[in-house]
Amino acid sequence: YRKFHIKTVEGADDFASMAEVLTRRFVAATKTPADPSFSHIPDLIVIDGGKGQLPALAYKKALRDY
User: Fold this and answer.
1) What predicted TM-score, i.e. pTM, was given to this entire model?
2) Nearest 5 degrees, angle CA 46-CA 51-CA 52?
3) What confidence score (pLDDT) does residue 6 get?
4) Residue 13 predicted with pLDDT over 70
5) Cα separation, 63 vs 22, whole angstroms
6) What is residue 36's three-state secondary structure?
7) Contacts of 54 by beta carbon, 8 Å cutoff, 6+ apart
8) Average pLDDT in the 54-66 region?
């Protein structure tokens, strides 16, 4: 379980906030040398939200590349 502070999204935008967190998480895992706490890419990501969150994230670069 991780907590992230949203840095680039202004206002309440769930879709953009989730995309930012996933992008930051995966980029941190692929950096050389990887941050030890982020070196393992998770096997499961739980999206806690409505039907709109998953399709909105599925097309984001954060998930397409992995």
Assistant:
1) 0.69
2) 100
3) 92
4) yes
5) 8
6) helix
7) 47
8) 60
Distance from the Cα of residue 20 to its chain's centroid: 6
Radius of gyration of the chain (CA): 12
Per DSSP, 65 falls in state T
Q: Are 17 and 9 in contact (CB under 8 A)?
A: yes
**CB of 57 closer than 8 Å to CB of 47:** yes
pLDDT of amino acid 24: 82
Look-up of token digits 């769930």: 14
Q: Quick check: helix, strand or coil at residue 54?
A: helix
Kindly report, residue by residue over 32-51, the tens digit of the pLDDT.
776 777 777 778 878 777 77
What b/e readout covers 30-40, taking b as 16+ CB neighbours within 10 angstroms? eeeeeeeebee
Q: Which of 26, 6, 28 is nearest to 17 (CA)?
A: 6
Q: How long, in residues, is the chain?
A: 66
